[in-house]
Structure formats: C-alpha cells, structure tokens
C-alpha cells in the first residue's frame, strides 16, 4: 500500500503545478455553481492558503531585498529604481487611457436602471499622508502590520547603509558580508517554503473558488455583465498591447508566448486570491526560476510593483467611473474624462494590493467628479470579479516591467528558463546581445 501511495504521489507531482492548479480552479468553480452555499464548508481551506501566502510576504521582502542590494552600489540601485518606477508610471498612464477608450466605445451602464444601494466608503488618505506613510514610525511594527511600503523603505535604507559600511570601514567588511550571507540563506529557505505552500495551493485554489462562487452566486459575475466585460476587454487590450507587444516584443525582443509561460503561475494565483501582495511569493518564484531575472532586479522591482504598480486598478477605476456616469445619466465631457484619467492614475498608485481596496478608492474618484457615492453600493456586487481581473493585470505588469529593467541591466538569462522552451526569438537575435 505504501508503495502504491508513493507511486501515485510521484505521478501527481509529475504533472506541472500550473496544470494542477488550473484543474483545481475549474473544479472549484464548478463545485460552487453546482452545490452553492454548501461549499462554504471548505472556506477555511482557502483562508489557510491566503494566510500561508501572506505569512511569506514580509520575510521574502526583507530577505530578498537585502540580498539584492548586496549586489548593488547605491548608484546602480538608483538606476534600477529610477527605471522601475518610471516604467510603472508609464504603463499605469497607458492603462488609464485604455480604460477610458474602452469605456467610450462600449459605453457600459447605458440603459442600466440604477436601483440605488448603500455606499460602503471611508475617508481616503491625503497625498501628504501617503508620502509620510512611506517612512514607518517603527520598522518592526511596520513589518508586523504588513505595511509593505514602510517595510520596503526601511529595508532599502538599511541595505544601502550596510553597503556603505562595507565600502568605507574595511574592518567591518567581513562582518557585513556575513550579515548579507545570512539573509541570502534566509531567502533560499523562504523559497523552499514557497514551493511547499504552492503544493497546498491546489487545495487552496479549489476552496477559494468553490466557497466564493458558492456563497456569492454566479449571478454576482453576470448581474452587471457590461461593466465586467468592459474591464475584461480593457485589461486584455492592455496586456496584449502594452506588455506583450510593446514591452516584450518591441523593447525586449522576445516571444510574448514565452513571457506568458513564465508568468502564468502568478497570473492564476492573482486571479484566485485578488491580492498582489499575497501573490508576491509566487511572482518572485516565477521571476527567478522561469523568467530567469536576477535577484538584484526582481527583489526591488516586484515588492515596489506589488504596492505601487496598479495598472489594473487604473483601468478598472476609469471604466467604473464612466459606468457610474452613464448609470445616473450624467455622461462625462472630454475635459472631465481627462481629469478622471489623472485622478485614476494617482489613486491607483496608492491603492493597497489587497482585496477590496478598489471599492474604497472608487469613492475618491466619484467624489472628485461629483457623482453619487450610492453607485459604490451598486457596483460592489461585482467587486470580486473586477478585483480578480485587475489583480491579474497588476501582477503581469510587475513581471513585464521587471523583465524590461532586467534586460536593460543585463540581468536576465535569456538562455535559460522559459526563454529556451519552444520560443522563437524575434528576428533571430538573442535579447541582450550587442
């Protein structure tokens, strides 16, 4: 019997993890539709998966970010950081433009009867509060509270200080290297834990989809079909045009299919969890093992992206505001749409990478353009599916930008990982070769 169990386990493990998770996703969705609220019984299994992922976020940021900084001088970190933040700003702006364009073409909300609803809103943070929030009062408390921006800020400052001590005080150089080596061992250990959590992810994804659809009902995904369709179209256009064609095809010069093959685990996990932050361990694993991006790049770009790169949020907010304007019979003029674009881009950058944050941020934009907040309650019914679509977009963008920055800094192994598995290099040129 033991031999049979081991044999079955080996056969199970021989199937790629992404395929096992995909099957779990489909079966979980089907179970939720068929058995309905009875599937709420498996919700704790999904909650456990989310807890395991969230448990890994702060340790992975601390270990990998410090390990990456070890390989960088302050000047080089500035180049990588500047390129990363600049690209995130550009892609988010493009996302907002695409969202408005799609909304103008499809006109979601036209003919929809607004039945009112209670707005679920709260006061958004001011720009000053957001900027001050980058600097934690207590770095240990920031880590304990899951404050990603505060944690990233402190770790970068601490890492740069360590490199400064190593360079300026020769007597401490060996000790500083020992500190970095200890964190490098910690990073490797965390990736071992990530692999174990992802094995459980097959169960977790099944439970998340089964309990989510079972309790919310498939009607949640269809009651406001025009809005869901518009956001899905906007995200698809952004992924295909901006990430695959523009960044992968034109800038990097690789097959978009190869990139998707390397990003698929993170994309599916993001759709299932609705959390860029929670997906970060999977995103980092894809960056290192599949896309072969060096740690000195992805250890900076991905944590920053999980908190500041919200392309999907920009698309979602732009389309949702246009939807709200149509629903209440107050179509927005071009000048108002330009203002929506500006606010959507700025707000999306400050949107936390956790489920439900988009609803809070929607209230900000609606207030700015003078639309009733009651629309938030109307839209909240499809927030789960909109959040899933937007989060998948965000995570894809994180990996796309990391790949571009890695290429610019000779930090991607295009002769390994997904780049060598059945892909054709555009024009027959190996990216990064001069």
From TrEMBL:
Keywords: Cell membrane, Membrane, Transmembrane, Transmembrane helix, Transport. This is Dicarboxylate/amino acid:cation symporter. It is a multi-pass membrane protein. It is found in: Cell membrane. The keyword Transmembrane helix applies. GO terms for cellular component: plasma membrane. The chain crosses the membrane at residues 17-36, 48-68, 80-103, 148-165, 218-237, 243-263, 339-366. PANTHER family: PROTON/GLUTAMATE-ASPARTATE SYMPORTER, PROTON_GLUTAMATE-ASPARTATE SYMPORTER. The keyword Transport applies. Signal peptide: none annotated. Its main location: membrane. GO terms for molecular function: symporter activity. It comes from Halobellus rarus.
